[in-house]
């Protein structure tokens, strides 16, 4: 990275010794990134931004560990991996993303309640540190401080197996969330083992794909019958485009579903597209055009209305259509058409595999 | 056996001599009887449309106003009956005023003959005709209430009923149906797209403009918020009730059984309604990406409103086209009124106004000469005859009626607003009219719970 400000910021984040310090560094990073947004290529911008987020999260975890030690709770009793799901997992966080996290820890030799207790307390601290740093909680309570998402490796395997065998709506949603898991701190090997059992279960229950398909195709692309953009009709955001759920998420979902079927472990959508091309699931031409469309969605998503409330960075994923130039509107329309085409292709491929 | 039968018949004849010796009723009497049963049935159907309006208006508005919205419809229908009897009927259908082109005069405090005088050429008793016409006036009034919804004072309903039923509606009815000047010109409005629907809608427009939008309907930047009605099932059921009632409204407007022409009118009515709903659902789906139920319901009503003027004048294919256009029109009309920041809580302006205008004009385009001759009003339209004459007459009636109703309604409501006030206070509007105007909630359990929540 050739951005000296960025290098300096990452260094300072890595050395911060209290949460308030992290907070002010995040605010600085925000100012810096906002200034960069108009000029920098979106992929590079995204990478740089996610480096900052990762650094902030890592340091928050580190500070929480130190706090635990200071309180006399000792150091982590077994190795663990702190997992990010959602946009964090996909390395696609915006300037304002919420926390979606979990923990997997090595099976303790003995005294597992005590180990569980340690990690629960640790996660409480991590989540609260991140909140103080401006990351809102996940509304669906997918948080490491939730005992459902803070488990030992074997407990995780059991849970996955349960979800695979009982593909109710919730379970399918959780399975799709786990597909985006990425280890941001700790022992990567633990996540690798978790994913091993994920993909083994996957092969054993191919019918899950149909349920995943039904679950992910719920979000419709923002393109109307006449090829027009579908805008918000009412409320404060009248005339805005729901970029998050009408463009970005449908594409993320489609690419994820294709990737899961071939056991691709990358989580970032652009990386997944490359792997899909290598696995000959997409032609080179398709891959390029999907990449281009996705870059546009990422860019527009970064332009969506930022809301800053109660010290938290939030965002409703909606973009005022006034912010779009005519060229961008045309580009968005053709990208959305690609998104629709991709959805159809995924539907055909997935259903084709099952019959 | 034979003897016994003869004996029984003999006794029967002694007891009921009429059965044996009365003359058969004449064909004219039978005809009159059939007509009156049909008009009476139609009156009942049209009166039942008030049930539709109750559900339409309550379903499309919020819980806190439900009792008020529902109750006031019954009350004003009763009030309308008295005023129409005393005054309105005389203006619409009373004898020659000397200014017969503009309004009728006579038959005030209407005191009808108790039976029809077949010999004098009556085809039905004037009593059923009065009832039928009264039900139309009450429908027009209930349409006007759409513009009052959720914020007008109860007293303003009473005062406006007086002026609307005594003067505004009867004058328009006289112009087109009572032998007034538009009738002389051959204006075609079979069952009242203009007379009933456009008149009601324009009164609603004047009211909603003078009242200004409900609290929370529009944001500072001019964007609109969706204030959803509290019960979509009510709204859907209301459309069914109105739809059924509409067969009295349109087919009943033949006011004769004759050779069964009313069946043709009913047939076209059905096609128009279906086409309106289908078109509205499809257009909302195509344009917004969501198949909107409210829009579909509005479309069905718009199809009915539009076909009301033309149901007796057009071919079935034209009825479908008229309905389809009405369905699309109502969708864009709702958007238009939102854009110009006119709050139309139950979509009266779009459903009854825009579709009413379209239905009236549609006659000028689609009416056929054969059907115009059958009904005996005006001539064929542009497509059948190639002549613009009828379209011009239709246009004229829309413009003139529109101007009159708007001016009269703005005058009455404007003066009312100055003298006695038109809108409830902000506090009353927020608490809801059930409590502020009547002292009791329409949904006591739910609303009390909500109230406690606010206080706690």
TrEMBL record, chain A:
Record Gene3D superfamilies: Beta Polymerase, domain 2 (3.30.460.10)
DUF294 domain: residues covered: 207-346
Pfam families reported for this sequence: DUF294, DUF294_C
InterPro entries per the UniProt record, alphabetical: DUF294_put_nucleoTrafse_sb-bd, GlnD_Uridyltrans_N, NT_sf
Coiled coil, from the record: none
Superkingdom of the source species: Bacteria
Domain Protein-PII uridylyltransferase N-terminal: 39-168
GO molecular function, one term: [protein-PII] uridylyltransferase activity
Name of the protein in its database record: CBS domain-containing protein
UniProtKB/TrEMBL annotation, chain B:
Topology of the protein relative to the lipid bilayer: Multi-pass membrane protein
Residue intervals of the Ammonium transporter AmtB-like domain: 37-443
Keyword Aminoacyl-tRNA synthetase part of the UniProt annotation: no
GO biological process: ammonium homeostasis
Keyword set, alphabetical order: Ammonia transport, Membrane, Signal, Transmembrane, Transmembrane helix, Transport
TM regions (residue ranges): 38-57, 69-87, 127-145, 157-178, 190-211, 232-249, 261-286, 293-310, 316-334, 346-371, 391-413
Cellular component terms (Gene Ontology): plasma membrane
Entries under InterPro entries matching the protein: Ammonium/urea_transptr (IPR029020), Ammonium_transpt (IPR001905), Ammonium_transpt_CS (IPR018047), NH4_transpt_AmtB-like_dom (IPR024041)
Molecular function GO labels: ammonium channel activity
Signal sequence, renumbered to the chain: 1-22
Transmembrane helix is among the record's keywords: yes
Compartments in which it is found: Cell membrane; Membrane
PANTHER family referenced in this protein's UniProt entry, alphabetically: AMMONIUM TRANSPORTER
Family note: Belongs to the ammonia transporter channel (TC 1.A.11.2) family.
Protein name from the UniProt record: Ammonium transporter
Species this chain originates from: Paenibacillus arenilitoris
Organism phylogeny: Bacteria, Bacillati, Bacillota, Bacilli, Bacillales
